[in-house]
Fold these 3 entries.
Entry 1:
Amino acid sequence: MSKILLQTTIEANPDDWDVSRFSMLADELRAAGHDVVARNRVAGHDPVLSRVDELGFDQLWLMAVDVGDGLTAADAAAIARFRCAGGGVLTARDHQDLGCCLNLLGSLGAVNEFHDVTVDPATMCDDLDTPTISWPNYHSGANGDYQPVLAPDRVHDLLRTDRTASGRIEWFPAHPHEGLVSADDVPDAGVLAQGRSATTGRVFNLAVLLDGERGPAGQPMGRAVAESTFHHFADYNWDIDCGAPSFVTEPPGSQIKDDPARLEVFKGYVRNVAAWLHPAARLPIAV
């Protein structure tokens, strides 16, 4: 099993999306047998993230919950070295520019698209209920609800399960304004799963994979997964009774609370990702 760093890009703040709001994710990874270190960044020079390639971690699950200053150049360089040495990385951001520090991460930044002032918001805004949030902001449903997952014709192993009749994971937690991840024009990138807007019907990417990249010396780089929103993994989206920061104003849904069985299937996706990102061996996919 892996040693996983579950890291946010903000300092500890009980009224924000700090690491305490991803406790259920940490517990799920630990239940799968992984050694998980869950932490927030610290002010100034972060002694862990800036040396992630030196501290024995196999994977980095990076919850990019900042507004632009979540990574330093030293952090980004360490993450690049980590991937070049085979380390697996998952990133998760959110709407508009939330988590745009990911732009420092080369190809892993390139698959994350953030707000572009040259784009007319009227042509791209999808969440129509929260006018203070601009593009990208795909509305997959209320926090606490499910969204259906659209999979390509060839279903990736990360979406495989023996717990549904279709043999694949069919539901992700929903969120009113997801960000944008794209495999367009990024070598070795591919779309894993898509969703459909509950307001406009637009199809958008829920997760993009990087697999097969080579480092500067030609060595295989670690795999990576880029998620359109960290709300796929937040405690609040798995259990609305956990509560959210005070700035969250959208009314939650109750589908997950009313039917938790589909969430248990989704947790198989979490375990699949952790197996797939392991650098030393291509482990069997959990179901």
Entry 2:
Amino acid sequence: MDSFEGVVEFIAVAETRGFSAAARQLGCSTSHVSRQLARLEERLGCVLLSRTTRLVSLTDSGEVYYQQVKELLTGLQQANEMVNLQQINLTGTLRVSAAGGFAEHYVAPALMRFTEAHPGLSIEMDFNSRMVNFVEDGIDFAIRYGELTDSSLIARKLVNRPMMAVAASHYLARCGEPEQPGDLKKHSCIISNNDTWKFQRNDVVETIKVKGRWRSNNANAVLQACEQGLGIAYMPASTFSAAVDCGRLQPVLKPWWGKGAGSWIVYQNRRFMPLRTRMAIDYLVDYFADWRE
């Protein structure tokens, strides 16, 4: 089925003669259209489109391919129109397990948009970092951050999460600013999921075991503790970006910030996945395709 990936985008570009116009027609981003077309050309082993700064036109191979696939797409559209609309409306309840500030501040609003497009669908989000049993707990998929260890599950990456270290200015005025990761041993650190922090500068990797007076697995609690001056925090950059922008927190150890890990959609390998689950997963993957910390 992956041989059909990019075909719809190709037809839209061929008919509108532009990536931006095709993106508007399809209701997606220009970068998504460009990415899908590049994958299609790579898969076919030929160039379908001739791109200039002002115009996009079909190559000879592209013209031949277009004449063939447009008939296939027309037939597919006609087949879809023959299906009873009630059968393809999303209904029922989508149950999602989520953990972390990224899920709270970014994934939840994205799923709210998804439900707006499907009035018959309900969503239940359980914000809990515990390991879930997808069958017993009735969970359709989970949003998780970091390294994944259960090989029996399928994981699709949503975003990469580079790290940022921060502290309140009044804490730094009182305790001094660390110049290298080893200096953290003299500081009070605000700990989230673990007390071993990994830093990297060029090819040098340094791992530091830290300690402090505040520990929480909730990103908002870590943020607030940091703003109160309880110590230095080290988490994905999106946790602190707003506080840094308005001056409530100050970046530290910037040359040493690590690449971090990723946030993932995790779900059980099931032969028959409900349509609502499959569509929600695909929606989130596409929604965050161009997202940056």
Entry 3:
Amino acid sequence: MTAPIPAAGTVPWRRRRGQLEVALVHRPKYDDWSWAKGKLDPGEEWPVAAVRETLEETSLSVGLGRPLPGAEYAVLDGTGQPATKEVRYWAAEATRPAGPLLNEIDEVRWLDVVTASDRLDYARDRDQLRALVRADNAGTLTTWPLALVRHAHAVGRGSWSQDDRLRPLDPAGEERAAAIAPVLAAYGVKRLTSSPSVRCTDTLRPFAAQLGAAMRTKEGLSEEGYAAEPARAGRHLERLLERGAPAALCSHGPVLPTLLAMLLARVAPDEPEADLVEDALRAAAHAKMAKGEVLVAHLVGTGPNARVVAVERHLPSRPRAF
């Protein structure tokens, strides 16, 4: 069976005079109104494609919010053969006006949700709109991301004779570190916290260079620091929850289950898919996150009121959303 054609997009949203509005795009080739979306480039990750396609089709620069329901439907592939397209969507708050349109879109229109529902040409596109409205009614549409990252693949312990904290990434790990950078950028991450071990700091270094931001290293997130005083790792996570700013934290396999358990305790119980979110966090903690994995928790609130409303797992091969 032919694999589905992967595509990604967003539902850009804003508030105008207190009213929720969403942005639809018009494609003159098909004379239809839909969401900004497009196919993944070879080797591109889903969230990276969603942000790129939104910029290309609407000229809106967005950071991804919580994931929305996806869609699968029949299309013709490049050779004219029947195929299935799989599209993954995210909510994306627009914070700046759009620039000029450049690609195959001839109009972007901001509409209230009732008018948007009537204007959409495909019934499947209303699934994302309904989910966005439900989240807005529940007060969980405005979220902030916290990305937990397990360091990418490093030189093996058996072939390294120096201090283990200096053990570097191997070539595969370096390649994955470069791939992680645009994923973190897609979610608008601005703050970086890491174990001081080289294999962790080097995992975030490409993104730190791209962002032009300092990386804060915390001994409590290292394997050695965690073994000496396990509670320190949790305190570093608590500080990020208190700030409530888009952040990434990079640590090690033995440390991350403690942090995942802390997030598990903060899953919003009223979320329709709370069970799936909890299962995803338990699975990541039980089996340990894969090396080079990025787990994105979408939160509302800060400090003691911070609650996890959605979780995505982005592995070196393929991400999953819950």
